[in-house]
Amino acid sequence: MHVQTTNIRDVLILTPNVFIDDRGSFFESFNQKVFNDILLKYDNCMQNVTFVQDNHSTSKKQVLRGLHYQVQKPQAKLVRVVKGSALDVVVDMRKHSPTLGKHIAVELSSQNQKQLWIPSGFAHGFLALSTEVEFLYKTTDYRYGEFERTLLWNDKDININWGIVNPILSDKDKVGIPFKQVIKEI
């Protein structure tokens, strides 16, 4: 497993070793021991992670999902794309973080096999770049609708370059909360 750090502490890009031959390919997409060893080395917040839920979403091109987070019982996530490609974005929502309000964007695809480790305390969303996208999430806590919030996807203070002006949004994502209001609540 190749580990790439990002400019936001504790957010990691993981790329598995892929074995390719004339029959196709094989790679280990998740190994608990390897993953915990990576966190022990690179993540200052978490050492041993237990995933409690797997999610699988499908999206068509130009669908933007997010930016979602939970104000209580925050979820850490390990995410990847198994079909197509997506621009994956995380925003640091950790109250005392030196990178509060900063974001990173990474293209995840079935071709590059990259995975993104998102610690607790981040808003998360993605934009479907290909005709069809299948997106997988492993989460460290369950979804609690009463604690779920949406950060405004096009907030000027966050300034994410999604590369699109009019994405396809859910009703919930259309009325996300501006960052200046969010930081008053965290």
Main pleated-sheet profile: 6 strands, antiparallel
Q: What spatial form do the alpha-carbon principal axes imply?
A: globular
The fourth-level CATH homologous superfamily is Jelly Rolls
Number of helices: 3
Structural class: mainly beta
Mind telling me which CATH architecture this is? Sandwich
What does this entry look like structurally?
This protein has 186 residues and is mainly beta. It has one domain (51-185): Jelly Rolls. 12% of the residues lie in helices and 39% in strands. The protein has three helices and 13 strands; from the N terminus they run E-E-E-E-H-E-E-E-E-E-E-E-E-E-H-H. The chain has helices at residues 32-42, 171-174, 179-185, and strands at residues 2-5, 12-15, 19-21, 24-26, 53-60, 64-70, 77-83, 85-92, 103-109, 115-118, 122-128, 132-139, 148-150. A six-stranded antiparallel beta sheet has the order 1-2-10-7-12-5, with no helix packed on it. It starts with a strand and ends with a helix.
Topology, please?
Blueprint: E1 2-5, E2 12-15, E3 19-21, E4 24-26, H1 32-42, E5 53-60, E6 64-70, E7 77-83, E8 85-92, E9 103-109, E10 115-118, E11 122-128, E12 132-139, E13 148-150, H2 171-174, H3 179-185
Antiparallel strand pairs: 1-2, 2-10, 3-4, 5-12, 6-11, 6-13, 7-10, 7-12, 8-9, 8-11
Please give a handful of descriptors for the protein shown:
Jelly Rolls, 3 helices, 186 residues, 5-stranded antiparallel beta sheet, mainly beta, 13 strands, globular, 6-stranded antiparallel beta sheet
